[in-house]
Amino acid sequence: MNRFILIFFLYVGIPSLGFGQFSQSSRDSIQKLSQADHRLMMKMLGIDQLRPGPSGDPTAPNAANSDESKAKTYESVPDPLVFENGKPVQSIQDWEKRREELFELFDREMYGRTPENLPSVSWELVSEKDSLIGDVEVNYLVLKGLVDNSVYPSLSVSIDFEYALPKNSVGPVPLIMEFGWRWPPGMRRLPAPPGPSWQEQVLKEGWGFGIIIPTSYQADNGAGLRAGIIGLVNEGNSRQLDDWGTLKAWGWGASRALDYLETDPKVNSRKVVIEGLSRYGKAALVTMAYDSRFAVGLIGSSGAGGAKLLRRTFGEQVENLASSGEYHWFAPNFIKYADPLTPNDLPVDAHELIALCAPRPVFISVGSPEVEGQWIDAKGMFEAAVLAGPVYELLGKNSLPTDEFPPVQTFLKEGDLAFRQHEGGHTVGPNWPYFIEWAREYLEK
Ligand code: GCU
Fold it and tell me: Does the reported pTM lie above 0.90?
């Protein structure tokens, strides 16, 4: 298969992989229901039509822009260190207030508001066993977080979470929590890379790892918004315009898993990393920004809606995110930036989401554009990390060591914001050893 076609399938095929475990007919009905909910949201917003997003197929006539000289179509980006009223942020106390302002803007316009008074979760131990991963003996726990559904008993919601801890550890260990993909039997997006898995690498450090399955408590499509944790809180109704989208709902689940880890004396719950790839990279960044108990973030190929500057005309665009295949990740209000508003009207941009993680360390990972394609917009993520730098510095931390976009495989590891484009495709894979090297300092001190 030619490389471009392969890349096309990797990206354009991915949203449908989200419900790949379903038959063609249920896929069609998921799509129809998503489109109906999307139209309802547009109606509530008073919008008839949206600008179509560009294509992820580089050979299509409407292919997404991949020409750097055409990417900078904006004149300015919002300044994380300037309040909405134009006053500058001059102190750490000011930043605390500006943070609240930014959360409010992200809540209202982009990711939606996490409801107050969410139902409680009680954890059930499904199984516990000793096992060997690589050559490390581990204790492996499988859990189910049962969400109290007394407000709306016709919906049941539960969180699938499992984690492994090295058996020979003395004292509580750091843990890497991944938003995990649940693959239908016999299906996997990319073959497992050669060499030790990320879990083996992490265990070798004496750290634990955990995997949370986001789609166990919130489906990855618009059709599922009246079920899962979002639907439960809305008692089976559709969303209001500033209601939370799935990225925040997925983050809520990770926070509940962290609550559980806080009760395990063998885990150092102040040293928990959140990691994810692609849509789960977006979710990992949102989780990291909103729940300051997560110590470190490893944000893999998150692209638009994650670490990529939305104002850049390169790769995936706001118009794609606002379409019926992806709008569910966000608050319905976000749709209006694909008509009548534009990305330039957004009161926030991705650099401010990264800034909300400060002073905690964040590693931004992406593959090589040659292999992974341009859809992700590696440079757009790098620029956002650069623009988040002043906030890290205000808090006494180190930003990226350069504002010049580095060649593939350059490891910018000197700061509390780290960046590396690896040589491979749509995976965190080759960046794991670099992440581990960089994160050691934070996780072991
Ligand atoms: C699509 C989508 C991206 C997303 C990716 C994935 O390519 O356009 O925004 O990150 O799927 O999650 O795999």
Answer: yes
